[in-house]
Q: What sequence folds into this?
């Protein structure tokens, strides 16, 4: 194979809300044919809050882990609650250990840039060789690059682009496990 598929994909060019909705959409569709672990961010649903962080919802169990400290209506401050993200990270690690084909992690943001939050889940997924789909806050792109470059590919916030990446990853893994199908060159089956 001339150029293997990147096993980590990052949704780029979308707001956090748009990226989470896109992850939720593709996970709902892909779950019919793949075991997917991870967490997707959901809103806290509280009015008049400066903090947009809400909860991380487990793809496997549906459990929600709070990731913000509610400072009350009208507060201008935002405080992330790291313990919820750490608990979610451990649950994801257990789901990876139980077996999955893909790990979807809501995003690499402030907590992860500091080596906290979902950092352990990112690390475990990468160490296990499990493909990862995530989003990265533009504020933390440099920290992400230090963490994951050159192992990832950036993708536009587009369902078709994510579908193409996921199909290429699945084909690549099948080839690694079972060998090249007769008469099909890997360059014809896989794009990076």
A:
């Amino acid at each position: 194979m001339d150029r293997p598929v990147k096993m980590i994909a990052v949704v780029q060019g979308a707001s956090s809300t748009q990226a989470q909705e896109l992850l939720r959409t593709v996970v709902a569709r892909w779950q019919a044919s793949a075991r997917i672990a991870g967490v997707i961010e959901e809103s806290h649903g509280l009015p008049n809050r400066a903090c947009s962080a809400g909860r991380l919802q487990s793809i496997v169990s549906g459990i929600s882990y709070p990731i913000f400290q509610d400072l009350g209506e009208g507060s201008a401050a935002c405080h992330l609650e790291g313990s919820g993200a750490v608990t979610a990270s451990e649950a994801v690690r257990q789901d990876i250990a139980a077996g999955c084909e893909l790990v979807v992690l809501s995003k690499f943001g402030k907590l992860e840039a500091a080596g906290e939050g979902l950092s352990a889940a990112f690390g475990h997924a990468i160490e296990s060789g499990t493909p990862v789909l995530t989003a990265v806050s533009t504020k933390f792109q440099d920290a992400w690059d230090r963490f994951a470059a050159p192992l990832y590919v950036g993708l536009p916030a587009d369902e078709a682009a994510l579908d193409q990446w996921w199909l290429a990853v699945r084909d690549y893994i099948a080839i690694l496990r079972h060998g090249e199908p007769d008469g099909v060159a890997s360059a014809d089956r896989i794009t990076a």
Notes: The helical segments are 16-30, 82-98, 110-113, 119-128, 141-148, 159-178, 186-189. The chain has one domain: 8-189.
